[in-house]
Amino acid sequence: MEALRHLISPGDLSRAETDRILDLADEIIAAPDEYSAKCRGKKIATLFYEPSTRTRLSFEAAMLELGGGVLGFSSADSSSATKGESVADTVRTVENFADIIAIRHPKEGAAAVAARYAAIPVINAGDGGHLHPTQTLTDLLTIRSLRAHHSLDGFTIGLCGDLMFGRTVHSLVKALMERDGVRFVLISPKELRLPAYLLDELRERAIPFEEVEHLDAVMPSLDVLYMTRVQKERFFNEQDYVRLRDSYILDAEKMRLAKEDMMVLHPLPRVNEIAAEVDADARAAYFKQMWYGKYARMALILALLGLCPVLGQPA
Ligand code: NCD
After folding, report:
1. Residues pairing with 112 in the sheet
2. CA-based torsion, 166, 167, 168, 173: positive or negative
3. Catalytic: which of 38, 42, 56, 104?
4. Ligand 1 pocket: which of 46, 55, 56, 58 to mutate (most atoms <8 Å of CB)?
5. What separation in Å is there between the alpha carbon of 34 and the centre of ligand 1?
6. Which atom of ligand 1 is nearest to the CA of 166?
7. What share of the chain in percent tops pLDDT 90?
8. Which of 18, 31, 46, 267 is the most exposed place for a label (fewest CB within 10 A)?
9. pLDDT tens-digit map of 252-272
10. Where are the alpha helices (DSSP H) in the chain?
11. 82 is catalytic
12. Is 132 a catalytic residue?
């Protein structure tokens, strides 16, 4: 019997395992019909205690396209959480009805708690301002697919906006630290810098990075620009949010400073940080990124359910 595997942090997958999941996503894209019945009789439970459009629907679409079923809730209000039930008890309930869980929760560490109690695989679909590893699989698949040499090594990525509360940023930085020759340009207001634990890790591992406050000057050096939303829901006071929310606005004028083949990514939703005029730029990849997200999640579901042999023993 294979060991139970979860995806709570990008580090739960080795670099080789991550690559095999991305390869499997490529195979599904190339021949979706071959995978359309792989999850027949299986169900995913999406337990979303926080708002979501893309993540929840792409998990559900992923399972449906694999021939499986979906159940779940899309707000804490409609679950027994409002009655005071713990995450631990909720997963011990849901494991009776489903084969795999995707959980999103406003508290950091909630997905790890779920995994500790669950007898079925648990996927962290975002835990507070901490991590979001399936967005990272999406981002890696997008970068690898759209880069000239289909490689995840040797490029410069600019991460711009709310680096402090942005869980997609934390996860992506963790995953890209495992690659060779990735250089980080961290673009944020002083108040929204990348958390110290990640800066320390970059320093300890001697990974090249710089922290800057302005986008224009670094624009020409970037191969990938990862824009993010200022995470309103994680602020303690409204005034700080209002002061910082429009710190960076990517528009056509700024895009003129960028390389001809720079890729613009954004986990979405966007608010003001990318002007609508950028959507028509061939370098804007954020809509395509969502498309890749479904295939990344299909591959992950197959991997964690042990239906495609891509995972080794836990690290
Ligand atoms: C992100 C999230 O929820 O962390 N959205 C997503 O899952 N694609 C980013 C965000 O909300 O800004």
Report:
1. none
2. positive
3. 104
4. 55
5. 31
6. 4
7. 90
8. 31
9. 999 999 999 999 999 999 999
10. 15-30, 54-65, 87-94, 110-117, 133-146, 167-177, 196-204, 238-244, 252-255, 286-304
11. no
12. yes
pTM passes above 0.85: yes
Name the one residue in this structure whose structure tokens are 């895009």.
255
Cβ of 216: how many Cβ atoms within 10 Å?
A: 11
| Nearest alpha carbon, ligand 1 atom 7 | 55
Domains of the chain in start order, with CATH, are 10-132+293-304 (3.40.50.1370), 134-290 (3.40.50.1370)
| Of 107-111, 228-232, 296-300, the least confident | 228-232
**Active site residue: 38, 132, 294, 297, which one?**
132
User: Among this protein's residues, is 156 annotated catalytic?
Assistant: no
Question: Is there an atom of ligand 1 within 6 Å of 55 CB?
Answer: yes
The span from the CA of 21 to the CA of 195, in Å, is 28
In the residue annotation, 149 being an active-site residue is answered as no
